[in-house]
Amino acid sequence: MKNYQQDFDQAMEKDISIEPKDWMPDAYRKTLIRQIGQHAHSEVIGMLPEENWITRAPSLKRKAVLLAKVQDEAGHALYLYSAAETLGADRDDMMDKLIAGRMKYSSIFNYPTLTWADVAAIGWLVDGAAIVNQVALCRTSYGPYARAMVRVCKEESFHQRQGFEAMMQLANGTPEQKQMAQDAVNRFWWPAQMMFGPSDDNSPNSAQSMQWKIKLFSNDALRQKFVDNTVPQVHMLGLTVPDPDLRFNEETGHYESGAINWAEFNDILAGKGPCNHERIEARRKAWEGGKWVRDSAAVYAQKQHVEEAAKVA
Ligand code: BYC
């Protein structure tokens, strides 16, 4: 008699990816739907702070790049919703849960984009943080999620570079532009670090997700990698890191950060961030406003199906 649990455990041990038709524990499936669903929602909600600046981008080139980036984020959401569907999740149900506040999305998108420099900072810092997390996810144990991440990472690299380049232009611009760049770093530095989730001693899902190789590195390990990558970039721009306690530890070769304001993070997760209400409201309007398109597409698909069936018969 086949021992499904044993086969699953062996696949884990040998780093063989789990595919949609393979047996998997219910809790593994549930965790993946939670994480991939949140990830997909983050891509969708993440379009909003940037979309805010499409009509106000400072040049035709910046506008074209931003439009392409926002469209890429929509594409990432589609790969991710599809990956969640391979686990039996229903896309409409996930969207209803997001709007009802029963599914999360990344905390970072609850901050406003007050100036053009914030858009540059999102590309550089937010996509930069996302890459650190997602490069690791390219080897996650669930095949469709890992494969989606490979493509997403290629696009995120372009996003990160264009953000850094836009930031460099501001940092080397007039004193006012340089100040605008510094203000954006001051506002986004800590929220970007919070993207990696609670500290390891306060992360309820990490132990199990690491055992299942959904997560290959802990929240703190990835956060450290982001800080180590990014501090030299801030300095290269001639800007400062808004952390008076930041120091480089010569012995470990790592930067040591000051304390993260976890009360602010928890408030955002509880729906009390600066833009939580606005973001969900925008999504609700888009979802309800798009219903007629989804309905029409479904009727058309049904009609096509009936016609095809009639041809075969
Ligand atoms: N924000 O036990 P933990 C992008 C939740 S978008 C909100 O450590 P886990 C982009 C967590 O879900 C990229 N919630 O959880 C798009 C859990 O709550 P539940 C977004 C957070 O899952 C447009 C609870 O806190 N990337 O790149 O082991 C423009 C306890 O946490 C956050 C992803 O989604 C947070 N920051 O680890 C530009 C990456 N952190 O579910 C850019 C995929 C934690 O138990 N996700 N929570 O109610 C992951 O890698 C993991 O899910 C996390 C959290 C590292 C985020």
Which key phrases capture this entry?
mainly alpha, EC 1.14.13.149, globular, two-stranded antiparallel sheet, oxidoreductase, binds benzoyl coenzyme A, 13 helices, 2 strands, 313 residues, Ferritin-like, phenylacetyl-CoA 1,2-epoxidase activity, single chain, Ferritin, 2% strand, PaaA_PaaC
What does this entry look like structurally?
- There is one protein chain.
- Helix 6 (about 115-135) crosses helix 10 (about 220-235).
- The chain has 13 helices and 2 strands, in the order H-H-H-H-H-H-H-H-H-H-E-E-H-H-H.
- The chain is globular.
- A hairpin with a 4-residue loop joins strand 1 and strand 2 (about 255).
- The chain has a single domain (about 5-310), classed as Ferritin, core subunit, four-helix bundle (Ferritin).
- By secondary structure, it is mainly alpha-helical.
- About 65% of the residues lie in helices and about 0% in strands.
- Bound molecules: benzoyl coenzyme A.
- Benzoyl coenzyme A (BYC) binds near residues 46, 203 and 209.
- The site of benzoyl coenzyme A has 29 residues, from helix 2, helix 6 and helix 9.
- One of its GO terms (biological process) is phenylacetate catabolic process.
- CATH architecture level-2 label: Up-down Bundle
- The coarse overall form would be globular
Average pLDDT rating: 97
Largest sheet: 2 strands, antiparallel
- What is the CATH topology classification name? Ferritin
Enzyme class: oxidoreductase
Organism: Acinetobacter piscicola
Protein name: 1,2-phenylacetyl-CoA epoxidase subunit A
InterPro entries: Aromatic_CoA_ox/epox, Ferritin-like, Ferritin-like_SF, PaaA, PaaA_PaaC
